[in-house]
Amino acid sequence: MQQNVGATDKRVRTALGAVLGITSLGTLGGALPLPELAAPVLGVAALLMLGTAATGTCGLYALLGVDTCPASVGESR
Length: 77
Known about the structure:
The protein is mostly helical. It has one domain. It is 60% helix and 0% strand. It contains 3 helices and no strands. The longest helix has 22 residues.
């Protein structure tokens, strides 16, 4: 699969994934007053954000035709 996540998008996804992961762990530990169901949902969302940031590809972007990666030199888009 071709990379379709740009550098700024990766930074945002990494930050959002970290916040979601910390919130999930806080919910599991009882430090945050969220429903128990929120912990696994937030955890999965955090893993998806961090996974797409690490690989540089987003399946939803591919389906929608979105590409935040800049074109390489000599490559036309």
